């Protein structure tokens, strides 16, 4: 007797008949509506009476929402594996993680040859299938940067670019019967998918034994391999053999197959809607209940199984088995890990990424993370240049699923924003109302990071920093308490969250008062930056003298082989008066020789629009940052020398004055209310010594203060640049109240002990 403890799933095996092309789609929808888990279709590309199975799968995916979909099984000789890999990954991404992959070595060789396929011997067919799996898995490994070279005589790729990765761990299930195919299942596949019609008595027992032995020899736990079975039978009033009889007889037979032969997925071959409903509504629930009871009585181990190779990637000091039940946790080796490990610029190697969906799950995640070894990083969008929202060997608490954008009060334009939302999504949601919130210059930035640090945006001189309009927040503090803070409830904590939130808890949402913003004029200008000091002085003085409706960001790139230094200005005139915008922008054309210019009238959402969030930071970023009170001739000249030194590949300046300086320095934990520009330099060489030396000598003497998100210098004196003494004293008092154990110690850590 063999029970692998797999969660039971049930599905249908449908005919892709073309005579009534909507009929198989309707059966797929019925399968979902009836409560089944899986829909599969035959794949016979040479059969003119059938629809193309891949096309049918995509159509069925669009008509369903929950069921997983697969071919049963794909005819590999007519489905090139490299193309199939990308097709399956694409369907998985488009369907929300619902694609699976059934594969067969091939049959009906005369028909395959007639379609242009190559006839293979049985041994060649196994070799070809093995090569195909290597190609498919290699292309799905988008986290590996090297081009893929895989396969052999029958299927191979030579330097193919990898990706896209599927959204979930797509199962590769093999239709197999002979010993060599069964050993291939054990070595490389995720599931064994035979059909009852091809099995003789005892074949399930013998097949399981062959797979289990080969899996053990290959270093795998046999429980990693799901056992599926295509069922053939009839519902009849009286019992007359295996799967022939009333639903009660079917229940008895399937319970026995689950407990004695290890079958975890039952797939009914039928095109009869009545049989589908009977199977889903009367058989499947009873089988689940009886198997669960039998397992409980026997103490059978159940649940997902991790491969030996994945277990080997676990980090010492993290108790993976203690992760809270129901909390989505992604380990190294999981399919999704590559898309979650890194930030925009920093490539991380965390031991675990937690993805809570509610504030209660944030509480559970935080309590669990506190008990683990290693650093704790909190991430909203992962775009912060500092890279502190990932780590190596620790836990990342990623709040991307807390992404609501909802209007709380129309009259005051008060909007509640989930910390995991991106500012592009926020801008798009507010645009129909004619509202906007100044929020950086890129739509992929997360709400939580920006709204707890500062928020220097392209509307900043007109409307101030993002934090200036945060009026309430929900935060989970170190002890697991969920606190809702505003001007009346724990106002000192709200003060601290607006500028130093990374030290005080996990913010789950903020409430912000949006501004009424008409269409704006967005101008981009590209300049010859051969004289960067002159350009900087002219641009800076022009911006400082401009009306508040003008906010400008300037990016200067150092020269490279075949190209001199260039600069790009991104400028917003926060009004739809185009003539006034022209008058304000024209002086900027004189700061340096213009290589390109363009301007457009656009909603704010047209500048900071929604973007896909996928970060695979190439390396730990090296940057230095500071706040410049005003653009003097000396400051401009020295910043120009930083760019020309060869130590900086990029210099960025963001205007921060205007409305951002209207608040008193003690109004928020971000105390820098007199500076005109934020300045950031990025290293042009490996290591940080060169940039640190150049910045400290040329730029730092002109700076007064620091913006947290752009600084990567780990030296403790940077904390004193970020927070003036009076601010730091208040923050230490808050730490002693809300984080006395210094749990949040990764993002410019403020030690409560001083």
Automatic annotation (TrEMBL):
Identification of the protein by name: LLM class flavin-dependent oxidoreductase
Cofactor annotation: FAD
Residue stretches making up the FAD-binding PCMH-type domain: 346-517
Keywords tagged on the record: FAD, Flavoprotein, Oxidoreductase
A Pfam short name: FAD_binding_4
Entry's family note: Belongs to the oxygen-dependent FAD-linked oxidoreductase family.
Entry-linked PROSITE patterns: FAD_PCMH (PS51387), OX2_COVAL_FAD (PS00862)
Entry GO MF terms: FAD binding; oxidoreductase activity, acting on paired donors, with incorporation or reduction of molecular oxygen
Recorded superkingdom: Bacteria
Keyword Oxidoreductase attached: yes
Cross-referenced InterPro entries: FAD-bd_PCMH, FAD-bd_PCMH-like_sf, FAD-bd_PCMH_sub1, FAD-bd_PCMH_sub2, FAD-linked_Oxidoreductase, Luciferase-like_dom, Luciferase-like_sf, Oxid_FAD_bind_N
Gene3D superfamilies linked: 3.30.465.10, 3.40.462.20, Luciferase-like domain, Uridine Diphospho-n-acetylenolpyruvylglucosamine Reductase, domain 2
